[in-house]
Amino acid sequence: MNRQSDAGFTLIDTLITVTVLAILMGIAAPTMRDLTSGMRLGQGGREVERELQTARLKAVTANRPIRLRFNCPVAGQYRMVELIGSPAVPTANDSAANRCQDTVYPYPNTDMDPLTRPNHDGPVRTLHNTLSFGAASNLEFWPDGTVHQQSGATNPWPAVASTGTAVTVTNGTTVKTISVNGLGKIQLQQ
User: What residues does each domain of the chain span?
Assistant: First the structure.
């Protein structure tokens, strides 16, 4: 007997399968967006924490005060800059509006003469466009490893308390915190 096979899928089977997959993908899309957003925030926090670590290490190894400036030159950007002058008496160039611009203070610096400053500025870094800084005062690392925080026009900047200060990176209402204590311990909070 020669029988024809009924194996295969009907149009209705295929439509039901496609509909179920579309519903599942619709449910998963917001979760994937949240996952991506969380990953960006985590990456941004890690990058800022690493730049803080680098600034502290550079201050100690170069025996020069190094500042980390936030929202400089524009919101969402930050830069490690060498203090021009001394903590008690910074030069006017150190607080100039263009201090973070790498067109004026290039990275890498072509003039490494120790008599001219700055020699240890880093590149301008940028947070992802969905991220911003929440609480973030400019910080200054001294050659002894201690940390000082900008407080108005006071010079030298006051030391960060042993309880520390926080730098926050935000993505909407979600926050990633980097704590920095006065002795220079830098820690990304989980």
Answer: 44-188
**CB 77, CB 100: distance < 8 Å:** yes
The reported pTM is 0.81
What's the first-to-final CA gap in the chain, in angstroms? 71
pLDDT digits (tens, 9 = 90+) for 48-86: 999 999 999 999 999 999 999 999 889 999 999 999 988
Angle at 80 between CA 104 and CA 186, to 5 degrees: 170
Q: Which residues pair with 125 in a beta bridge?
A: 78
Look up the CATH number of domain 44-188: 3.55.40.10
Instruction: Lay out the sheet containing 186-188: strands in order across.
Output: 132-133, 165-171, 174-180, 186-188
Q: Annotate 65-130 with three-state secondary structure.
A: CEEEEECCCCCCEEEEEECCECCCCECHHHHCCCCCCCCCCCCCCCCCCCCCCCCCCCCEEECCCC
Cα gap 63→58, rounded to integer Å: 8
Q: What is the mean pLDDT of the chain?
A: 88
Residue pair 151/160 in contact (Cβ under 8 Å)? The answer is: no
Picking from 63, 94, 81, the residue whose alpha carbon sits closest to that of residue 156 is: 94
